[in-house]
C-alpha cells in the first residue's frame, strides 16, 4: 500500500504543477503582466506538453524511438478541423464543437496508429525509428494533396485533384491542398488546453501505474523475460503506440483550432524532433520532466526575442547544458545542492535498458 | 523420494507419477543452427511432481533445450507435449500460458521496476483488469490491484523477501535477484518450472537453503521442476531423475547414484577437466 500512496503523491504533485501554471498564467494575463506574444503561446504550450507526454509513452515507457509523432498530430488536426467546420451550422456551441473535433481527432489518429503500428511494431530500434519517420512524411504529403470541401450535399473529399470552389453549391473549402485548412473559427482556449493536458496526464499516468503499464515497461526492460511470463508483446506494444497516437491526435485538433489557417507542412519532421527533444531532455519515462521541458523549451525562443540575433545560440546552449546536467553525476550533484526543486525534475530519469536486444544468451 | 521406473519412451519417471499423464514429454527434439546440430534426438519425460536435473559440460546444449521447450527457438525437429498437448505453433507467451515458467542463466529481471512490480508482472495473466478499467480507474482496477498486491507479497514470502517489495529489482544482491526470478516464474502459476542454474553464484549455505526451497515449492504447488545446474551437491541432493547432455545428445539418464557411477558421464566430465 505504501507503493500506491507514493505514486498517488507523485501524481498529485504533477497535476498541481499544471494547475499552478494555469493559475499563475491566468492571473498574469488578467493583470496585464503577460506580453501579447506570450499570451498567444499559452495554447501551443499546452499542445506541446500533451505531445511530449504522449510521445514519452512510446519513447520512455515502451522504449521504442518514434520519429513520426507529428504525423499523428497532423491526422488529429485535420480531421478535427473537418469536423468543427462541417458542423458549424448544425452545432452553434463552440465548446461542443471543440470537444467533438478533439474526440474525432483522437479516434482518427488512433485508427491511423493501428494501421501504422501493426506492421511497424514488428521492427525494433533504428529500423522502427526510420519507418515512423517515413510514415510522418507520408502523412504530410497525403494531406498536402488532399482537397476537402463542404456544402449542402455534405463532404467532398478529393486526393491529388484540385477541388475548385465553383464545384461546391453554396459551400466552402475546408482543406485546400498545400494551402492547408483556412478560415477556421478559433475555438481553442487556454482553459481547454489545460483540461486537455490534465486529461492526457490522467490517461498516461493511470496507464503506466497499472497492469497494462507494467506489461509495457516489462517489454522495455527485457523483452524475452516479458514473453517468458506470458505477456503478449504485440498487444501491449500496440496499446502503448495507439494510446500515444490518439493523445497526439487530440493535441493536434486543439492546435489547429487555435489558428485561422494551418498547413500540413507545419507537422513535419522538425516538429517530431522538437517533441522528441522535449522528451529526451525532460527524461525518458519521466512524465513530469516532459511537462516542464516542453513548457520551458517551447517558450524559451520567445523569451529570448529581446536578444533576437543570438536566441538560437542561447537555445542551443540551454540544450547542451541540460544534456550535460542530466548525464553527468558531478554536475547532477552540484545541481542537487543548488536547488531541490530542480532535482525532483531532472534526476528521476529511468535508466535505459543496457542490453541492445534479444537472444544474446 | 519415490523410485524411478522406466517407461516405454526410453525414459524414467517417479513411481508416484506413473498413472498420470506426464507433465512434459519431449520427443526426438532437435535444432540446427546453420550446419551445427546444437541439440539432436532429445527425448525426455517428466512426471507431474518430479524434480529432474539436466546436466552436462559447458556448451552441451542445456540452455538450448530450455529455449526449445519455451519456444524461444522453434525446434527444427521433434515434438513437445505439455500435459499431453502438442505445443507446436505456440510462441513463448502461449507456452507460458499453457504451463511452463522459467528462469534465466543470465538473470533477466525488469531491473528498473520494483521487486513487487516484477512479481505483479508475473501475475499478469492470473489477475487482471483491462486497459479501459486501468485508465479510468474503474472498480475492477482497484480490486485486481489489491489482489495482485496481496498475492505478490505472499509469493515473496516463500523466500522471505516481502520486506524488499519496494526496492528496485536491479539493486538487489545477486542471490536475491535469482530468488526473485523464481518468484516471478512461480507467479505465472506454472505446472512445470524450468530453473537455469539457480544456484550460480551462491555459497554452500545459500545453496542448501535453495534446495529446501525448491523441495517445498514442489510440495506446496504440486508442480514439476526441471533444473540445469553445475553444483553437483544440489543436483545429486534433490533431483530424482537426471539427464546428462553432451554435444547436444543425451548420453545418460537415470537416478543420481547411477549417473554418478556411469563411465560415459565420468568420461564426458573428466575429458573436460583434462583439457583445462
Describe the structure.
The complex is a heterodimer of chains A (361) and B (276). With 361 residues, chain A is mainly alpha-helical. Helix content of chain A is 68%, strand content 5%. Chain A has one domain (2-264). Chain A is built from 14 helices and three strands. Chain B folds into two domains: 1-99 and 190-276, 3-Layer(aba) Sandwich (Rossmann fold); 108-188, no CATH class. By secondary structure, chain B is of the alpha/beta class. Chain B has a six-stranded mixed beta sheet with strand order 8-9-10-5-11-12, with helices on both faces. Chains A and B meet through helix 1, helix 6, helix 7, helix 8 and helix 9 of A and helix 2, helix 3, helix 4, helix 5 and helix 6 of B.
Largest sheet of chain B: 6 strands, mixed
Radius of gyration of CA atoms of chain A, rounded to a whole number: 21 Å
Global morphology of chain A = globular
Which pair of chains forms the biggest interface, and how many residues does each contribute?
A: A-B, 35 and 50 residues
Low-confidence stretches of chain B: none
State the helix count of chain B.
Answer: 10
Provide key terms for this protein.
heterodimer, A: 361 residues, mainly alpha, three-stranded antiparallel beta sheet, 14 helices, 5% strand, globular, B: 276 residues, alpha/beta, Rossmann fold, six-stranded mixed beta sheet, four-stranded antiparallel beta sheet, 10 helices, 12 strands, 37% helix
Helices and strands in order, then pairings?
The complex is a heterodimer of chains A (361) and B (276).
Chain A: H1 2-30, H2 36-61, H3 69-86, H4 94-120, H5 126-144, E1 146-151, E2 154-159, E3 172-176, H6 190-208, H7 211-221, H8 223-228, H9 233-256, H10 269-282, H11 287-303, H12 311-327, H13 329-338, H14 340-346
Helix pairs in contact in A: 1-6, 2-6, 2-9, 2-10, 2-11, 3-4, 3-5, 3-9, 4-9, 6-9, 7-9, 10-11, 12-13, 13-14
Chain B: E1 4-7, E2 11-14, E3 24-33, E4 36-46, E5 51-55, H1 62-69, E6 77-82, E7 85-86, H2 92-98, E8 100-102, H3 115-122, H4 131-135, H5 139-156, H6 174-187, E9 192-196, H7 204-221, E10 224-228, H8 232-238, E11 241-246, E12 249-254, H9 256-260, H10 263-275
Parallel strand pairs in B: 5-10, 5-11, 8-9, 9-10
Antiparallel strand pairs in B: 1-2, 3-4, 3-6, 6-7, 11-12
Helix pairs in contact in B: 3-5, 3-6, 5-6
Amino acid at each position: 500500500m505504501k507503493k500506491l500512496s507514493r505514486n498517488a503523491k507523485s501524481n498529485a504533485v504533477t497535476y498541481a504543477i499544471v494547475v499552478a501554471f494555469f493559475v499563475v498564467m491566468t492571473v498574469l494575463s488578467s493583470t496585464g503582466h503577460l506580453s501579447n506574444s506570450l499570451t498567444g503561446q499559452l495554447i501551443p504550450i499546452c499542445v506541446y506538453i500533451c505531445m511530449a507526454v504522449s510521445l514519452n509513452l512510446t519513447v520512455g515507457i515502451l522504449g521504442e524511438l518514434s520519429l513520426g509523432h507529428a504525423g499523428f498530430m497532423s491526422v488529429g488536426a485535420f480531421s478535427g478541423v473537418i469536423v468543427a467546420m462541417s458542423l458549424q451550422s448544425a452545432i452553434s456551441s463552440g465548446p461542443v464543437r471543440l470537444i467533438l473535433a478533439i474526440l474525432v481527432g483522437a479516434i482518427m489518429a488512433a485508427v491511423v496508429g493501428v494501421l501504422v503500428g501493426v506492421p511497424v511494431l514488428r521492427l525494433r530500434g533504428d529500423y522502427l525509428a526510420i519507418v515512423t519517420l517515413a510514415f510522418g512524411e507520408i502523412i504530410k504529403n497525403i494531406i498536402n494533396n488532399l482537397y476537402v470541401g463542404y456544402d449542402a450535399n455534405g463532404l467532398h473529399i478529393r486526393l491529388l485533384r484540385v477541388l475548385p470552389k465553383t464545384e461546391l453549391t453554396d459551400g466552402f473549402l475546408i482543406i485546400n491542398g498545400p494551402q492547408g485548412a483556412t478560415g477556421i473559427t478559433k475555438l481553442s482556449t487556454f482553459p481547454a488546453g489545460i483540461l486537455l493536458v490534465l486529461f492526457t496526464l490522467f490517461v498516461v499516468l493511470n496507464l503506466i501505474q497499472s497492469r497494462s503499464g507494467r506489461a509495457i515497461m516489462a517489454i522495455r526492460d527485457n523483452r524475452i523475460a516479458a514473453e517468458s511470463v506470458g505477456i503478449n508483446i504485440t498487444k501491449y506494444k500496440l496499446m502503448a503506440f495507439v494510446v500515444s497516437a490518439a493523445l497526439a491526435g487530440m493535441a493536434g485538433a486543439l492546435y489547429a483550432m487555435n489558428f485561422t489557417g494551418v498547413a500540413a507542412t507545419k507537422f513535419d519532421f522538425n516538429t517530431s524532433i522538437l517533441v522528441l527533444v522535449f522528451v529526451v531532455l525532460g527524461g525518458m519515462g519521466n512524465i513530469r520532466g516532459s511537462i516542464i521541458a516542453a513548457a520551458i523549451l517551447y517558450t524559451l525562443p520567445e523569451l529570448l526575442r529581446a536578444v533576437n540575433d543570438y536566441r538560437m545560440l542561447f537555445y542551443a546552449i540551454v540544450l547542451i547544458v541540460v544534456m550535460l546536467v542530466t548525464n553527468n553525476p558531478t554536475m547532477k550533484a552540484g545541481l542537487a545542492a543548488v536547488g531541490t526543486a530542480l532535482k525532483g525534475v531532472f534526476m528521476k530519469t529511468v535508466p535505459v535498458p543496457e542490453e541492445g536486444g534479444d537472444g544474446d544468451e | 523420494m519415490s523410485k524411478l521406473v522406466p517407461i516405454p519412451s526410453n525414459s524414467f519417471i517417479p513411481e508416484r507419477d506413473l498413472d498420470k499423464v506426464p507433465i512434459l514429454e519431449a520427443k526426438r527434439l532437435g535444432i540446427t543452427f546453420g550446419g551445427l546440430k546444437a541439440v539432436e534426438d532429445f527425448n525426455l519425460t517428466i512426471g507431474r511432481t518430479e524434480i529432474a536435473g539436466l546436466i552436462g559440460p559447458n556448451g552441451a546444449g542445456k540452455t538450448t533445450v530450455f529455449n526449445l521447450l519455451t519456444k524461444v527457438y522453434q525446434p527444427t525437429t521433434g515434438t513437445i507435449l505439455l500435459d499431453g498437448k502438442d505445443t507446436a505453433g505456440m510462441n513463448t507467451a502461449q507456452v507460458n500460458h499453457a504451463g511452463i515458467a522459467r528462469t534465466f542463466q543470465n538473470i533477466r529481471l525488469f531491473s528498473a521496476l520494483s521487486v513487487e512490480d516484477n512479481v505483479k508482472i508475473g501475475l499478469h495473466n492470473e489477475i487482471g483488469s483491462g486497459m479501459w478499467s486501468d485508465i479510468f480507474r474503474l472498480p475492477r482496477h482497484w480490486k485486481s490491484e489489491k489482489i495482485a498486491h496481496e498475492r505478490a507479497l505472499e509469493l515473496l514470502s516463500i523466500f522471505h523477501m516481502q520486506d524488499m517489495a519496494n526496492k528496485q529489482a536491479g539493486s538487489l544482491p545477486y542471490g536475491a535477484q535469482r530468488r526473485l526470478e523464481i518468484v516471478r516464474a512461480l507467479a505465472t502459476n506454472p505446472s512445470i518450472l524450468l530453473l537455469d542454474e539457480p544456484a550460480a553464484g551462491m555459497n554452500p549455505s545459500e545453496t542448501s537453503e535453495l534446495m529446501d526451497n525448491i523441495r517445498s515449492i514442489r510440495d506446496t504447488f504440486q508442480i514439476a521442476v526441471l533444473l540445469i545446474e553445475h553444483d553437483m551437491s544440489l543436483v545429486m541432493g534433490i533431483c530424482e531423475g537426471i539427464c546428462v547432455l553432451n554435444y547436444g545428445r543425451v548420453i545418460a539418464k537415470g537416478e543420481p547414484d547411477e549417473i554418478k557411477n556411469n563411465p560415459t558421464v565420468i568420461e564426458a566430465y573428466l575429458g573436460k577437466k583434462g583439457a583445462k
